[in-house]
Design brief:
single chain; 7 helices; mainly alpha; 161 residues; globular
């Protein structure tokens, strides 16, 4: 399967979830959707770039941009929900100590974190979840600036470099 096909499938799946308001409630279902969302966003960005190079009609570009913005906003909602569902780092450390678990590096080191969420992903999701006002601001700015809201934009607004 080509990268374009993967991107198109991710884009279509994200459209379906959004159109039918099918955002899952459980973390085990949200995590794969997060990865699909990242692929969809990358595809939308690439598609818009190609549309700009090919001088597509403004209506086509705006429709694709709107879909990309919807997908970006949904991905931020997914990440925020993941962050809400994860135990805090302190809770995980406390649980680990109670069970005698070692919190060395590794995917399974943090109790309560699904294996497919890295420590970095968990940290970012918690950070996004803890800053809903900044997430809302980035979403609004992206709409106003004809851009797609991203996790990177939110994280940069929270912790400017």
């Amino acid at each position: 399967m080509t990268e374009q096909m993967k991107g198109e499938e991710a884009m279509e799946m994200f459209k379906l979830v959004k159109a039918n308001n099918l955002l899952p409630a459980g973390i085990d279902d949200l995590v794969p959707l997060s990865f699909i969302g990242q692929a969809a966003i990358a595809f939308y960005r690439a598609k818009i770039k190609v549309m700009d190079q090919l001088c597509m009609t403004e209506a086509q570009r705006k429709a694709t941009l709107r879909d990309g913005q919807d997908a970006g906003e949904m991905l931020l909602d997914i990440e925020s929900r993941i962050g809400e569902l994860l135990p805090s780092r302190e809770e995980a450390i406390s649980k680990g100590r109670k069970r005698g678990a070692s919190l060395q590096a590794g995917r399974e080191a943090e109790p309560g974190r699904p294996a497919d969420i890295t420590e970095k992903h968990a940290h970012y999701a918690r950070t996004i979840s803890d800053n809903p006002a900044i997430v809302a601001r980035i979403k609004a700015q992206a709409r106003a600036n004809e851009d797609i809201p991203t996790k990177t934009a939110v994280l940069n607004a929270i912790h400017p470099t």
